[in-house]
Amino acid sequence: MKFRPMPQRTDFKAPCSDCHSSPNPRPHGWVQIQLKQKQRAVGYQAMVYVCLPMAEVLAMDGSPRKPGGARSKETVYYDFTRANSDLLLDIIHAFGIASQQHNEDIRQILGKILETAGN
User: What is the DSSP string of 6-43?
Assistant: First the structure.
């Protein structure tokens, strides 16, 4: 599964920049849902953030990612295993409850996974 890490910006505190100082740190990362005002419409939208321990993130070529802040449009890889499967379940749960569109997106993703596994 590939993820794009959040680029570091100086004008706000990234939602998961304090992962290690959290009162309940999870060794394999965690998921946050934040309600943000819509940019071009009235109302709020749910934003799902996946906070990953950067020591476990891989570069595109499969090598360990170099330390430092995320770069714009950077793509990284995170290997889901039995040891960190709770994070994958948290991601699925977060997308399922964040909004109707998020729920539909995760249903389509899971449908494709099951379709592929059946072949």
Answer: PPP-SSS--TTTTGGGSSS--TT-EEEEEEEE-SSSSS
CA distance 50 to 16: 8
Alpha helices in 1-119, H assignment, sequence order: 85-98, 100-117
Backbone phi, psi, residue 46, to 5°: -85, 130
The Cα–Cα gap between 51 and 15 comes to 8
Q: Report the predicted TM-score, pTM, of the whole model to 2 decimal places.
A: 0.66
Maximum pairwise Cα distance, the chain: 48
In tens, the pLDDT along 14-44 reads 444 444 445 456 778 889 999 888 888 888 8
| CA 66 and chain centroid, separation | 19
